[in-house]
Write a structure and sequence with these properties.
The chain has 332 residues and is mostly helical. 74% of the residues lie in helices and 4% in strands. The chain is built from 13 helices and four strands.
Length: 332
């Protein structure tokens, strides 16, 4: 197990380097090849030439590519100093960039918004895992029944309906119509009940979309697993149905579910833009949407990096869980 974990950590470290290089190329190298003035993208189209030239000097955009890549890496792990145009700005590690439009480092913005997105992602993930897997397993065990057909119709509706439709509909009914819930976000440090009141609708709305997908994949995988020889052997030996399903069938069923969870949870931590916009949550999704409106490129760059790192970490955790569920994975 230790050797497997070390291999995965080395692979994750190598992937981290690839991610940082890819992000650098997307935001700095490719626009330069396309003839786009990168400095202008960092300060806005209405900036005067002196400001644009100052940002170009501070970012080192005139330096060789290898030196720009080194400064980019160094900024993330050791901090960075932006000097040029007569002033010096220090960005402490981890430096994910600096917004010359809002005059602030990106990392504090990300750390301020990150907890809200994390709360949204984890709360919704718990709901969609519990209800999605339960619905999928029951549908597989009662294949062709009224429950199976009804659950799959609801799952199809959950997959088909966009998040902004179900979100606005839930707000109209439960917040503005029945007045059961106050949809205003309140930090958990100020009031737990107020925080729970503001998060329950976003959790349910987001979980409805994902639970539908998890129910369908759980049902399909469970039906396939129930037809395997070792399941028939376990039943022939006299094992009870709870033991057959819980101990044997669920282990194989959890493998594709974990794969989906790693990708979905990582992407959500990078910012659930539609959900946060619908419910006015001050998370990473809202931050990147505001940055797009204001053409604030460094914030977009920072969120892209956070999203990539979140997906990488989530998949690393999934790899470890694979080895726990199925020991054969450690040998592959």
């Amino acid at each position: 197990m230790l050797a497997y974990l070390i291999r995965r950590l080395f692979a994750a470290a190598a992937m981290l380097v690839v991610i940082i290089l890819a992000v650098f190329c997307i935001f700095f190298l490719i626009p330069k090849w396309a003839g786009v003035d990168i400095a202008l993208s960092f300060v806005g189209k209405q900036a005067d030439p002196a400001a644009v030239e100052g940002v170009r000097e501070k970012l080192g955009l005139g330096d060789p590519i290898y030196l720009q890549v080194w400064d980019f890496f160094k900024g993330i792990f050791a901090g960075r100093t932006y000097s040029g145009g007569g002033d010096v700005i220090h960005c402490s590690a981890p430096c994910f960039g600096y917004s010359f439009r809002s005059e602030q480092a990106i990392w504090p913005v990300l750390t301020d918004r990150f907890p809200v997105t994390l709360q949204l992602a984890i709360g919704a993930a718990v709901l969609w895992l519990v209800f999605g897997i339960a619905a999928g397993v029951l549908s597989a065990l009662k294949r062709g029944s009224l429950w199976d057909r009804g659950a799959m119709v609801v799952a199809l509706a959950g997959v088909s309906l966009p998040i902004y439709f179900t979100g606005l509909l839930s707000l109209a009914i439960f917040a503005f119509g029945l007045h059961w819930i106050d949809a205003k976000y309140v930090p958990i440090s100020e009031s737990f009940t107020g925080w729970l009141d503001g998060m329950i609708l976003p959790w349910i709305t987001l979980a409805f979309l994902y639970a539908a997908m998890y129910a369908r994949i759980t049902r399909a995988t469970m039906l396939e697993v129930l037809g395997e020889d070792y399941i028939r052997t376990a039943r022939a030996k006299g094992l009870g149905e709870p033991a057959v399903i819980g101990k044997h069938a669920m282990r194989s069923t959890m493998t594709p579910i974990l794969t989906m969870l790693g990708m979905d949870l990582g992407a959500l931590i990078g910012g659930a833009i539609l959900t946060e916009s619908t419910f006015n949550l001050p998370g990473l999704g809202r931050a990147v949407l505001d940055a797009i409106r204001n053409v604030d490129l460094p914030i977009i760059l920072g969120v892209v990096l956070i999203t990539s790192l979140a997906v990488l970490i989530a998949n690393l955790v999934v790899d470890v869980l694979y080895a726990v569920i199925d020991p054969r994975v450690r040998l592959s």
